[in-house]
Design a protein that fits this description.
Blueprint: E1 17-19, E2 22-24, H1 31-48, H2 55-76, H3 79-103, H4 120-136, H5 142-155, E3 160-163, H6 165-169, H7 176-185, H8 195-200, E4 207-210, H9 228-242, H10 245-249, H11 254-264, E5 280-281, H12 282-289, H13 296-305, E6 309-314, E7 318-323
Antiparallel strand pairs: 1-2, 3-4, 5-7, 6-7
Length: about 325
């Protein structure tokens, strides 16, 4: 019998890749981009099978993905790919931050900064409290705004708290008694005695104060979602920030100290202003600080003199710069 002829196998078509729910077509060019996307898809799927996390490795994967998706979106002009690239950048930063929190080291292996507030949850609570004060300050001006922030954090849990004179006289206010009188006069603050007795009170005999708008009313939780322990940490962070030794030594004004506090909540992990170091929009910064536009350059100069800020510039739309190593422990990095 004649032997049967073997039928040659048809070559398989090149496979398409997949990453983040996206199909990577084999026809995508350049080939290097296609290969990178396919390899990343395989690496992400392999990472999901790990039994132990490797956050440094994961941060690197997300960073590579952000670069690849940015190039892919530029080739295809696909807005969805651009959004995915931005999400990958944020995921890389988050994973890198989590790795540093676990190991207490930076990417270079150097010891990380020991923060006053440790953890993204506390950082977000700090931003929430500062933003709340910006929207609920009863009177204009940066000095009043600073006192409102400090007293809100002192009383946020129950609407009541204890103060001593140094809590107010150490803030660089031009007239501490006048600011307290104005807040008490408009009903925002309630005192058991005179303003003079509050300013003269000492730690062994503090003055109990009340902020009526923060008192529980039985209709649900107050404006904040954190407990007593978190409130104490946030209050301590704010007090340490605005009474920093260099700010006191250079006699920084209350407006400059308020600006220092706001900038500490609006920087990147490396201390650059803005979530990615691109700076802060004036339309956001000025309402939060209650600072007139013309006074901002002078206040930035005060923070530079106090070794709090470096390389700051102000344009018609934003302020850029970075916080110094001295200020980094007080920061609440943006996600």
């Amino acid at each position: 019998m004649p032997t049967a002829r073997s039928v040659p196998r048809r070559p398989r078509p090149p496979r398409d890749g997949r990453i983040a729910g996206q199909v990577v077509p084999h026809s995508l060019r350049p080939v290097e981009l296609r290969d990178e996307l396919m390899e990343l898809g395989d690496l992400f799927r392999a990472y999901q099978q790990r039994t132990e996390p490797n956050l440094a490795f994961l941060a690197g994967l997300h960073a590579r993905k952000a670069t690849a998706f940015t190039t892919w979106s530029a080739i295809t002009d696909d807005p969805h790919l651009r959004r995915e690239a931005r999400r990958a950048e944020q995921a890389a930063q988050t994973a890198r931050l989590q790795h540093q929190q676990r190991t207490h080291c930076t990417d270079s292996g150097e010891p990380a900064v020991n923060p006053v507030l440790a953890g993204a949850a506390l950082w977000e609570h700090a931003r929430t409290a500062v933003e709340y004060c910006a929207g609920h300050c009863p009177l204009p001006g940066p000095e009043t705004r600073l006192v409102v922030v400090m007293l809100t954090l002192r009383t946020a849990h129950t609407g009541t708290g204890n103060l001593v004179g140094q809590d107010l006289t150490g803030l660089g206010l031009s007239d501490p008694g006048g600011v307290v009188e104005q807040l008490a006069g408009c009903g925002w603050l309630s005192l058991p005695g005179s303003v003079e007795s509050l300013l003269e009170s000492r730690p062994e005999n503090p003055t109990p104060v009340t902020i009526p708008s923060l008192l529980p009313n039985g209709e649900g939780p107050g404006p904040f979602r954190f407990g007593r322990t978190t409130r104490s940490k946030l209050s301590g962070w704010a007090q340490k920030t605005v009474t920093d030794k260099n700010l006191r030594k250079t006699k920084a004004t209350a407006a400059a100290r308020l600006l220092a506090l706001i900038l500490a909540t609006r920087s990147s992990l490396e201390g650059r202003l803005g979530p990615s170091g691109e700076g802060l929009a004036l339309e956001m910064l000025l309402p939060q600080t209650a600072i007139p536009t013309g006074e901002l350059p002078g206040l930035l100069d005060q923070l530079t003199a106090a070794d709090w800020l470096a390389n700051s510039t102000v344009s018609s739309t934003r302020v850029t710069g970075r916080l110094t190593e001295r200020a980094l422990p007080f920061t609440c990095p943006l996600p």
